[in-house]
Design brief:
The protein contains ten helices and two strands. With 216 residues, the protein is mainly alpha-helical. It comes from Aphanomyces astaci.
Length: 216
């Protein structure tokens, strides 16, 4: 989403090379997922013949599994890794849940910031002088670098998610108002989830203390 929203040219720089390497790694991973042997419960053995593997992976169920390797969707698989870390490092559940909630907020802020910054490329409104009209042009950063545009978009997303809403960044067009509504709903949902999580953790902590006193 960052590249779609803020990178407007294909200059071969460090960011471009890094992004292409990430794309290549996901393509390689997709190929390996497609040719991985599978377990046949009827034969009680691993099927390693390539034609049979391809036939198996061309079924609807396997096609859906292949779609899971799209890199945007694979981000959610990181929760499995974090769960293993929590079990291996014996991290308290309360700290683990709070860290996970914070990571969710940061990821959501990044996505919504990219959405907010990318909407200007799909708007065709103009002012009285014929200049393109968007929140970036009104705020005066439409000709700034992508770092300035991204940080400003991320700033707007964070204050919106956290329901602060300073109002210093204007919402100009109808499209931007629609995206702002979506971001505010996402922010309220995230805040409500965090509040419910804190209440649940407090209840679990109280229950654990009662059990410890009962056992003693």
């Amino acid at each position: 989403p960052f590249e779609i929203a803020f990178v407007q040219q294909d200059d071969v720089d460090a960011l471009f090379i890094f992004d292409r390497c990430v794309d290549l790694s996901f393509c390689i991973d997709m190929v390996f997922n497609f040719i991985t042997p599978y377990w046949d419960p009827h034969a009680n053995a691993m099927v390693e013949e390539l034609p049979l593997i391809i036939k198996q992976y061309l079924t609807i169920f396997r096609i859906l599994r292949i779609l899971r390797v799209i890199k945007l969707v694979r981000v959610f698989r990181a929760s499995r890794i974090f769960s293993r870390w929590q079990a291996q490092l014996n991290i308290p559940m309360a700290i683990f849940k709070l860290a996970g909630h914070l990571a969710t907020i940061l990821l959501l802020a990044h996505w919504l910031g990219c959405l907010w910054g990318g909407v200007v490329h799909f708007e065709y409104h103009t002012d009285a002088q014929g200049n393109k009209l968007s929140w970036m042009s009104v705020y005066g950063i439409d000709n700034k670098g992508m770092q300035t545009q991204y940080v400003t978009s991320l700033y707007w997303a964070v204050v919106t998610i956290l329901t602060i809403g300073y109002g210093d960044i204007p919402v100009v067009t109808l499209e931007e108002k629609g995206i702002a509504i979506v971001c505010m709903i996402a922010g309220c949902g995230t805040y409500s989830f965090g509040t419910a999580l804190m209440i649940l953790l407090r209840l679990l902590n109280d229950t654990t203390k009662r059990r410890m006193r009962f056992l003693m």
